[in-house]
Amino acid sequence: QLQLVESGGGLVQPGGSLRLSCSASGFTLDYYYIGWFRQAPGKEREGVSCISQSGGSTNYADSVKGRFTISRDNAKKMVYLQMNSLKPEDTAVYYCAADRYGTKCRSSEMDIWGKGTLVTVSS
Predict the structure, then answer these.
(1) How is residue 14 annotated by DSSP?
(2) Model pLDDT, residue 86
(3) Half-sphere exposure (CA, 13 Å, Cβ side) for 21?
(4) Which of 27, 32, 65, 121 lies at a CB distance of 3.0 to 4.6 Å from 98, suitable for a disulfide?
(5) Other Cβ atoms closer than 10 A to 58
């Protein structure tokens, strides 16, 4: 069974940090383009960051550039999202998604989705 499981969400104060993890099972992570997406209450899902199969290419939404860092460890079948300088507007459910042989950071392109992990930024 192809599966992605996110973890690491929680409540954090503004300015704080969290590291989200995405664990893959049932498939070879090496072949998959991976993205982190988020959905805030009452808003549409948006792309946060994506990473190529080798990890050599990354991209970020303008709203998180300089604060978030995406990385992957194919041997461990893990993808990470380090989130620093968190703001209340970063509050959302964060999803990990995978696209086999993909190259585009679009939710419509993703084949496999996790169930999400909630990040709440509040004092």
Answers:
(1) T
(2) 98
(3) 9
(4) 32
(5) 15
Q: Compute the distance between CA of residue 123 and CA of residue 104 in angstroms, rounded to an integer.
A: 35
Q: Nearest CA to 26 among 52, 57, 1, 51?
A: 1
Q: From CA 85, how far away is CA 47, in angstroms rounded?
A: 18
* Tokens, residue 117: 């992990």
| Residue 101 identity | Y
User: Residue 53: phi, psi to the nearest 5?
Assistant: -60, -40
pLDDT digits (tens, 9 = 90+) for 11-69: 999 999 999 999 999 989 999 999 999 999 999 999 999 999 999 999 999 999 999 99
Residue whose structure tokens are 């599966």: 3
